[in-house]
TrEMBL record:
This is DUF1700 domain-containing protein. The chain crosses the membrane at residues 95-119. Keywords: Membrane, Transmembrane, Transmembrane helix.
């Protein structure tokens, strides 16, 4: 590998390392922009020596400075302070507890009445108007 190539590779490696301080998408964007500037500048026919390449890198600036400037441009996201969960007012809490108790009582009454109805049907037989389903009889041969 040529010294010039090592010089550019080392610069880009430093840029990659410094860009880790940025959000991932912004870091990729910054690296792509700098790489594009480098490609254009190094593609100039006047840039032929290692000194020319160093001058191109010097004009770009230190990778850490480039990232620091990008960090300063980043909008700062301020999160509101965490709020405690809202509490129920005593009136709402009482109404909710009352509703749950009444519902439980109604379900209990419904369950007990269905048990009494089933027990009554078994003792007295089906009432008038009830549908009786005949059970199949076994054949004498089977």
């Amino acid at each position: 590998m040529k010294v010039e190539d090592q010089l550019i590779r080392g610069y880009l490696d430093r840029l990659h390392a410094a860009a880790r301080a940025l959000p991932e998408d912004r870091g990729r964007e910054l690296i792509a922009d700098v790489a594009e500037h480098l490609a254009v500048a190094l593609g100039d026919p006047a840039v032929t020596t290692e000194a020319d390449r160093r001058q191109v890198l010097d004009r770009l600036g230190e990778p850490e400075e480039i990232v620091r400037a990008a960090l300063e441009e980043q909008p700062v996201t301020v999160f509101p302070p965490a709020q405690a969960p809202a509490r129920m007012s005593p009136g709402v809490k009482t109404a909710l507890i009352t509703a749950v108790v009444v519902l439980a009582f109604l379900l209990l009454v419904l369950f007990l009445s269905s048990l009494l109805f089933a027990a009554n049907v078994v003792e007295t037989g089906p009432s008038q108007g009830s549908v009786v389903v005949p059970t199949p009889m076994k054949s004498p041969t089977g």
